[in-house]
Amino acid sequence: MRVRQLTAAAAALLLAAGPAGCSADRGPARTPAPAPVPAEPTATTGDVRPADRTAVRDGGTLRWALDGVPATLNVYQGAASADSALLAHALYPSLFRPDGHGRLAPDPDYLAGAESTPAGQQPQVVTYRLNPRAVWSDGTPLSAADLDAQRAALSGLDPAYRGARPAGYDAIDSITQGADPHEVRVTFRRPYAEWRSLFGPLYPAAETATPAAFERALTGGGRPGAGPYTLSRYDAEGGQVSVVRNPLWWGDPPKADRIDFLAVPPGQRLDALDQDRLDVAPLTAAVDRAVPAASPSPSSSRAASPSSSPSASPAPPPAAAPEAAALALRRAESLPGVTVHRAAAASLTQLTLNAARDPLTDPVVRRALTKAVDRRRIAEAALAPLGLPAEPLGSHLLAGDQEGYRDDSAAAGSADPGRLLDEAGWMRSAGGGPRTKGGRPLALSLLVPAGSATAQRTADTLTAVLAESGIVVRPVAAPAESFLGEHLAAGDYDLALFSWPVGPSPASEQRPAYAKPRPDADGALDPGGNFGRSGTEEIDRLFDRAAAELDPAARLDLLQEADLRIWQLGHSVPLYQRPELAGVRTGVVGAGTYGFGWPRFQDVGWSR
């Protein structure tokens, strides 16, 4: 499971990254939508040279770029970053791993098997068979006690535990040992369909059993782990974390002797690759936020959430970002001995419409705008310069390479956007200028992440596309520091461009983005994580039913029905999957861009 928190940096920079009152129902908001044709996943997220272990030599050191040495290795703490999650996958267990289509399967290094009671049988009980050989680095076997301590820490029942509260832990009633020490029985107080997303990563009971233990950063030596590698150096001041082979590891032996994770700001990574100081380097931000040669180089970076990029460097002049990004990409592609891996990330870039601000309070205007957006033109502008297929998205909840994906955009209706705007009173002059109503032009602000070339290309194309329908768009670039708090959360925008992570558990992970806003204690509308500020009881019920539906086909039907209603509501427009780039030195196997997954660190190494 990935911890998915949309922090300020995440919201502003997900385009360049590197784990709830009701709107009026008018028109088709409650009418059946055309039945879309399901699409099988045609490609996987991720671009990794497959690891044939027989072709990978034993030994050697890999140098891997981080945004910064993270403040903690506990991914459930508020200070956790994307780098926390990366390191945790080398050091701690995850009971399930996602494949390239986001499907979760037991990791045999930790699980011999796992089975849930069938749909309709109450209570739901999941029986895990832990790998008998799986032990913490102090020799203690993994056990029910580890799962139960993590449940207590993340369930939200004890407010003394601070930090993230991933969905699902609050649904657990009890965790007990089964027939033997390697069998664990998890009983749920209510059905939870996405139970496979739990306990990944899993921490030892000693690190989660009390609030004080849970607050530890786990960055010092001697803390037990259970991964193919163990921590040997954690030097925040020196910008280096080193891991070495775990002598008690029971699985496939790690190929590399050591992996040195080095803090290298994105703006310095191309130089580091060119000078043979790095072997693996995420390059999304290095390309997307490249600054012109005359501009000052970024002097530092800040770690961001597991689905975000580092904080922005000083934004180049608006017209310079795409040109600088193109130069950076050409340089990356020309580096001797380096291959650029590129893929669609497990993150959906969308245009969000603020239904709490006039004129978008009118659902007819929102539906007109939704229809006016040419998603294919926008995807072409955003992705083609990076060498990625220009595939527009048709779902708010699933990526195009995810099992069950289908294009639901037909649910927005077949009405011409111009006719809808006429109906709403926004008339176009005979000369074809901007639409007006009562002398007021139909002009909307567009919030975009400052300094992102991909966001700028998207905004430029969107501005041109909507102008064809008589809608004036004024892009407003906001830095990471203010994007969330001062704009998204405050509702200070009409349209907003950002990305939202997607994973193997859409019913739980995506619900906050679409949950109907509720009044807070003072009676004001609290949007929670729903920055579009529109929602319905029906959509909430569909998400809740999907989260509790144990039959996979029935659960997918409920999610797709929710997606249809979101389209009809005019909440947001999915545009494309966020691009992901990485530079990997020739001879390195098992590294690249990972999409839904993460490195299988024991397979990463140097080819023979």
Q: How many angstroms separate the termini?
A: 33 Å
Largest sheet: 6 strands, mixed
* Tally of individual helices: 16
What is the average per-residue confidence, as pLDDT, rounded to a whole number? 88
Low-confidence stretches: 1-43, 295-319
Beta-strand content: 15-25%
Kindly report the spatial arrangement of strands forming the biggest sheet: 12-21-13-18-16-17
Helix vs. strand class:
alpha+beta
Helix content: 10-25%
* Overall form: globular
Radius of gyration: 24 Å
Number of strands: 24
Give a short synopsis of this structure.
With 608 residues, this protein is an alpha+beta fold.
Secondary structure blueprint with pairings:
Elements: H1 8-13, E1 47-48, E2 61-66, H2 82-91, E3 96-98, E4 104-106, E5 111-116, E6 125-130, H3 144-154, E7 172-177, E8 183-188, H4 211-214, E9 229-235, E10 240-245, E11 258-263, H5 269-274, E12 280-282, H6 284-288, H7 321-334, E13 338-353, H8 363-372, H9 375-383, H10 417-423, E14 436-437, E15 440-441, E16 443-449, H11 453-467, E17 472-478, H12 480-488, E18 495-501, H13 506-509, H14 511-514, E19 518-519, E20 525-526, H15 537-548, H16 552-569, E21 572-585, E22 588-589, E23 592-593, E24 605-606
Helix pairs in contact: 7-11, 8-10, 9-11, 15-16
Summarize the structure in words.
This protein has 608 residues and is an alpha+beta fold. 24% of the residues lie in helices and 21% in strands. It contains 16 helices and 24 strands. 57% of the residues are buried. The model is unreliable at 1-43 and 295-319 (pLDDT under 50).
